[in-house]
Design a protein that fits this description.
It holds the Pfam family PPIase_AIP. This protein is an alpha+beta fold and 462 residues long. The chain has helices spanning 52-55, 71-76, 91-94, 97-108, 122-126, 135-142, 171-190, 194-212, 220-242, 246-259, 264-276, 280-293, 298-340, 345-357, 364-381, 386-394, 408-416, 423-431, 440-457; strands at residues 3-6, 12-18, 32-41, 48-51, 59-62, 84-89, 147-157. 22% of the residues are buried.
Length: 462
């Protein structure tokens, strides 16, 4: 069913897509309406901007509560329960839609509809309206245009038929609710119910911010509401301190300090939060700023600085012990790794270096085998030296040399030139000890000549 009509309001055209049931509801100030909506651009594709059904929750609005997009009240008051209608609205009615849509999107994802907890400096807040955080809304805000609204009216409740929440109150009712919520939050704080207290403080702040948004910034009414909001925010931060939400405290108090740098309590609470997160410099700066603003806090600040000093000393000692244990553990793991992998290159290189530095400490059996092979090669080339070689090889024990067969010059050779010593040279020197020259170098040359001569008499394959 489609029925097009022009309402008695300029710039609105209505098309009924599905008729409702029953008599037309009575709409008075305070009437609560629940509905679904879909917003579309007036282009060929009818691009959908927002859809409450896709968001998974219907919209609720109170008639006469100064809703920013007041044209919606006009649209809904023309409908029956269960009716679905499409409304074309000219640009004169849609200019504020991007701002309303931002709040609705925040609600849909479980966030507050107002940005009271967004922490920016005063200058940034003045220019925050230039971006809504959504590209499509920013574009629509720069170039307002007509929109289609498809509405489905679900339920209508009279003021006496529901419990009114703070968002459903008008400005006068909101301001009356603030001290009540404030008192409830204080009571819960004293009972140690900090999380419940934060909800009361938060609700009161939202009430104030909703009213404050309609006042001109930095004028007397706005500043009065700002002071009330700051008091509630500091109470909110007091709860967060007890809940150990220190970084959130730093954010909220910094926001207050940026806009109102003379707020002593904000510096004090931020200093305590900085101390809890081990930021000694910032904590000390905040505490000293408290003294500048209120010298009467001297005793309290002196105590806080003493606590800060003690805590930092304990923290530094804990860090020292932690890093000490860390390095000890790393060293232990490295030692274990070397023991578990003895065939790695590093241990082999270490052994080679040790052998070069201490040749006398090499295994006796290995040296004896090498010398025995040399003896066998020499005897094969000259059988006449068999007796001499056998007697000499019996005496070659590096750890226990025979002093009677060694001259002082030979002992000197072993001590002064360990790196140039070879097992073949050792054998010849010991076998020809009686004919050795006092100079070690000629002996080595003589042995090389003998080895060359012996090798000439050897026949390959024998």
């Amino acid at each position: 069913m489609e029925d097009s009509m022009i309402l008695d309001v300029e710039g609105i055209k209505k098309t009924i897509l599905y008729g409702g049931t029953g008599a037309k509801p009575k709409f008075v100030t305070g009437t609560k309406v629940t509905f679904h909506f879909r917003t579309q651009l007036c282009n060929d594709e009818r691009t959908v901007i927002d859809d409450s059904k896709k968001a998974g929750m219907p919209m609720e609005m109170v008639i006469g509560n100064m809703f920013k997009l007041d044209v919606w009240e006009t649209l809904l008051m023309s409908m029956h329960i269960g009716e679905v209608a499409e409304f074309w609205c000219d640009v004169i009615h849609t200019g504020l839609y991007p701002i309303v849509a931002k709040s609705l999107r925040r609600i849909a994802v479980g966030k507050d509809p107002v940005d009271w907890h967004i922490h920016t400096c005063g200058m940034a807040n003045m220019f925050a309206y230039h971006s809504l955080g959504y590209d499509d809304l920013d574009e629509l805000q720069k170039e307002p245009q007509p929109l289609y609204f498809v509405m489905e009216l679900l339920k209508v409740q009279q003021p006496s038929e529901y419990d009114r929440e703070s968002w459903a109150l008008n400005d006068e009712e909101r301001l009356k609710a603030v001290p009540v919520l404030h008192g409830q939050g204080n009571k819960l704080f004293k009972q140690g119910r900090y999380e419940d207290a934060t909800l009361k403080y938060k609700e009161a702040i939202i009430c104030i911010k909703n009213v404050q948004s309609k006042e001109k910034a930095w004028e007397a009414p706005w500043l009065k509401l700002e002071k009330m909001a700051n008091t509630l925010t500091l109470n909110y931060c007091q709860c967060l301190l007890r809940m150990e939400e220190y970084y959130e405290v730093i954010e909220h108090t910094s926001d207050i300090i940026n806009q109102h740098p003379g707020t002593m309590k904000a510096f004090y609470m931020r200093g305590k939060a900085h101390m809890e997160v081990w930021d000694e410099t910032e904590a000390r700066n905040d505490f000293m700023r408290v003294l500048d603003l209120d010298p009467g806090m001297k005793k309290t600040i002196k105590k806080e600085l003493a606590v800060l000093k003690m805590r930092m000393e304990v923290k530094n000692e804990e860090d020292r012990l932690k890093y000490k244990g860390m390095f000890a553990k790393m060293a232990s793991e490295q030692d274990s790794l070397e023991l578990e992998n003895p065939d790695q290159e590093i241990p082999e290189q270490t052994c080679q270096v040790q052998d070069m530095e201490n040749p006398e400490e090499a295994p006796a059996e290995e040296r004896a085998n090498s010398m025995q092979k040399t003896a066998e090669m020499t005897l094969a080339s000259d059988p006449e030296q068999t007796t001499t070689a056998q007697s000499s090889s019996d005496n070659v024990i590096p750890e226990q040399p025979t002093t009677q067969d060694l001259t002082a010059e030979q002992t000197t050779i072993e001590e002064t030139a360990p790196e140039q010593f070879d097992t073949n040279h050792t054998f010849v020197v010991q076998s020809d000890s009686k004919e050795a020259s006092p100079s070690p170098e000629p002996m080595c040359l003589e042995q090389e000549a003998q080895d060359t001569e012996s090798s000439d008499h050897m026949t390959p394959g024998n």
